[in-house]
Design goal:
- The protein is of the alpha/beta class.
- It has a single domain (4-107, 131-166, 190-224, 245-277), classed as 3-Layer(aba) Sandwich (Rossmann fold).
- The chain has 7 helices and 7 strands.
- It has helices at 23-34, 46-59, 75-89, 122-150, 187-206, 228-235, 250-257; strands at 14-18, 38-43, 66-69, 94-97, 153-158, 212-218, 268-270.
- The protein binds nicotinamide-adenine-dinucleotide (NAD).
Length: 278
């Protein structure tokens, strides 16, 4: 007799994960492996890809993980990945549009600086839109079309709590720093994260009767060694009173990739400790 948990199996399914070498991308990779699938990590850095592969190989010693150094803004590179996967496996079953220029408080991303809206550079705007929206569009076109032809597949678009609400810039402020030197979360991030939800809804209807489901996952507030003052300020905005852990996402990702969510399309799944309801 089959169990309810069998619905979560994605045995042998090929799942492309963009930005797969990053913080959350590695967790999506674990989700695919837990379900018995084969993750395909795309990222721009070969060394990070190899490190990600080595990291998961320790936890899943007999796993198969494909890695491709690929810029998702380059259509021809994506077609090469598609062709290689099809000649090796004959099918592509999932896509997680996860890559974005994610401006982290703890990092030194050029889009997370003392750049106020009035002087926000067009160059950074274009770069952020290119990765977060155009890259997701191209991946959906290249890999999603394979799924459309197969009449089966699943796309997960990664948004954020900032796809639902606007950033509260107060949490990034530092005491004693002049106004024009305060760092702020960039407008491009809000636009990308709201836009990706629109892309989900469009594609969910476009592919509605064609066997391809498309949903959005909004992660939020990942703890990653941020300064104590920042952790305190952001935690006060979250009803659960804490940031999230990377291991709080894979079970939901596996649910969204598998037949367990067979009637879900066009949905926005928000994992934010309640932040967006406050
Ligand atoms: N970390 C958080 O707190 C948080 C919260 C909400 C949403 N998110 C979202 O989750 C996703 C992953 O975030 P993360 O924290 O793992 O970020 P990350 O910066 O660790 O990972 C992003 C990855 O994308 C890759 N990338 C960038 N440009 C690329 C390109 N052109 N082609 C291919 N790969 C490219 C980067 O090299 C990096 O490995 C993002 O969409 C982000 O907006 C993150």
């Amino acid at each position: 007799m089959s169990s309810l948990f069998d619905l979560y199996k994605i045995t042998g399914k090929i799942v492309v994960i963009t930005g797969g070498a990053g913080l959350i991308g590695r967790k999506h990779c674990e989700a695919v492996l837990e379900g018995g699938g084969i993750p395909v990590l795309l990222d721009i850095f070969q060394d990070s890809l190899e490190a990600a592969k080595a990291e998961v190989a320790e936890k899943y010693p007999h796993s198969v993980v494909e890695i491709f150094k690929t810029d998702i803004t380059n259509y021809d590179s994506l077609c090469r990945v598609r062709d290689e996967l099809l000649s090796k496996y004959g099918h592509i079953d999932g896509l997680i549009n996860n890559a974005a220029n994610n401006p982290k408080m703890e990092g030194s991303a050029k889009n997370m600086g003392a750049i106020q809206f009035h002087n926000f550079p067009l160059e950074i705007w274009n770069e952020d839109i290119a990765v977060g929206l155009t890259g997701a569009f191209l991946c959906a076109q290249v890999f999603g079309t394979v799924m459309e032809n197969q009449k089966s597949g699943v796309v997960i678009n990664i948004s954020s709590d900032y796809g639902i609400i606007s950033p509260n810039q107060n949490i990034y402020r530092k005491e004693g720093v002049p106004e024009n030197e305060q760092i702020i979360k960039p407008i491009s991030y809000s636009v990308v994260k709201h836009g990706i939800i629109g892309m989900t809804k469009y594609l969910a209807t476009y592919w509605g009767k064609k066997g391809v489901r498309v949903n959005t996952l909004c992660p939020a507030s990942l703890a990653n060694g941020q300064p104590d003052e920042f952790v305190k300020k952001i935690s006060e905005l979250i009803p659960m009173g804490r940031m999230s852990r990377p291991d709080e996402y894979p079970a939901t990702v596996l649910y969204m990739l598998s037949e367990a969510s067979s009637y879900m399309t066009g949905a926005t799944v928000i994992l934010d400790g309640g932040r967006t309801i406050w």
